[in-house]
Structures are given as C-alpha cells and as structure tokens.
Design a protein that fits this description.
alpha/beta; 9 strands; elongated; SH2 domain; SH2; SH2_dom_sf; SH2 domain-containing protein
C-alpha cells in the first residue's frame, strides 16, 4: 500500500468477506474503531425519534400493511372482541392487526362455534403454521383457502371457508 494512504474502507463500501488467515491487526483495529464510531453516531441520531424500532422495521411494517389492505379478509387494527362479533358462521375468518401486541397479525376464525385467534408471525418475523413456512401472510391464507386445508397451530385447528364481512 502506498505511503500515507489509509487502509480503512470508506463507510458504505465495507467488504463483505475478510480473509482471516492473513489479517493485518492494525487494519482490523482501524475498521473496528470506524464501525464503532459510525454505530454510535447512528444510535445517537435515532435515539429520540425511534426508541423501539429501526427504519427497516418501520418500512417492513408499512409494506405488510399495504399488501394486506387489498385482501378481502383483512380488517386492519381490531380488538379480539370486535373481531369475534364479525364471525357469524363456521368457517368465517379475518386477519387483523393486534391491538394488545403491536406489530402482530392475528388470524381470527370461527370453528365449531368457538372463536380462535392464531398469531401468524413468530417472534423472528417468520410467517408460519405448525408445519410450514410461508412467504407472506397472504400466501399462508390463500394457500389454505384455495386448497381447503385447515390451519394447524399448537393444539388448535381452524378451517377457512369465507372471509367475514368487513366492519362498517
């Protein structure tokens, strides 16, 4: 490397692969110091504006809500009680945004006269049932609806027949 030139890669151009067999400790320390500096600047600038979520979380949440808004079975944010009142016959179902667990999406359906509430996204952000992972909430619902398959969750089963009528 020529004299006077820094071996630190500019921010945004960090390498994605590091050969650890021939690593220069001076370069490693410089990279770590720069990364810590950038992280502390980012943390300070977002501390007040976004205490619980980062920009990716907010963008992903908005994209999910926008995708779901076009579905006939999506009701938006709703309490369990309000959701249950929309279920009239066995097989009625809806997907709602939880009011008690922010950011969570719940499938509410009527099965054998009993309302069931199933979380559709696990804590890691994966859309899943007991035995399968799906690309999205729409994929999960449409797969079960089109193939007339029950959704099986820990000790519970829910058959989807028709979306509940939209709330007025």
């Amino acid at each position: 490397m020529p004299e006077g030139r820094s071996s630190v890669t500019p921010p945004g151009e960090m390498p994605t692969y590091v050969n650890t067999q021939h690593i220069n400790m001076e370069t490693l320390q410089a990279l770590q110091a720069e990364a810590e500096h950038l992280l502390s600047r980012t943390t300070e600038s977002t501390k007040d504006s976004s205490p619980g979520k980062d920009l990716f979380d907010m963008t992903a949440g908005a994209a999910v809500a926008e995708e779901l808004s076009t579905e006939p079975w999506y009701q938006g944010e709703m309490t369990r009680k309000d959701a249950e009142q929309l279920l009239k016959k066995c097989g009625d179902f809806l997907v709602r945004k939880s009011t008690s667990n922010p950011g969570s999406y719940v499938l509410t359906g009527l099965h054998n006269g009993q309302a069931k509430h199933l979380l559709l996204v696990d804590p890691e952000g994966t859309v899943r049932t007991k035995d399968r992972i799906f690309d999205s909430i729409s994929h999960l619902i449409n797969h079960h609806l089109e193939n007339n398959l029950p959704i099986v969750s820990s000790g519970s089963e829910l058959c989807l027949h028709q979306p509940a009528e939209k709330k007025q």
